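Q: Here's a chain of 155 amino acids. Please give me its 3D structure as tokens.
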Amino acid sequence: MRTDVPEQALTVDILGSSALWKGHETLLASALAAAAAAEGKAGSVSLMLGDDASIAALNQQFRGKNGPTNVLSFPPAAGGENEPGFLGDIALAAETIVEEANFQGKRFENHAAHLVVHGFLHLIGYDHMKPADAEAMEARERAILVSIGIEDPYA
């Protein structure tokens, strides 16, 4: 599924393999569009809406870690022959996100939107390894999410 978001600033190519994602594609594409607009970015992103098994395989292959994680971000390879304007790949694990949302008392779609924004910010260089960087990244996430009507995920 290819989703062009308003003003053609961002194209989102959605690949889905889990039924848990059905009906949530538009919200996730809108969250990505809001993140791109807030950060002044245009181009395309591939979004894999996977299940825990598919994300666990990617996590092992690319990070050497066992098991699924909620979101993985893959910026374009430096010096690679990527399509112009390609910003990278984001992969989400449905069952992990459902479990986290239930544990945190959040709606699945809001938590997924938060994680896709989080993943997008990683694509464009944000990180959260140092406290100051984490604060800056979380502030951007909050601002982007509130712009699409999703409450503070850290409240």
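Q: Can you summarize the key feature?
A: The domain at 2-147 is CATH 3.40.390.30 (Collagenase (Catalytic Domain)).
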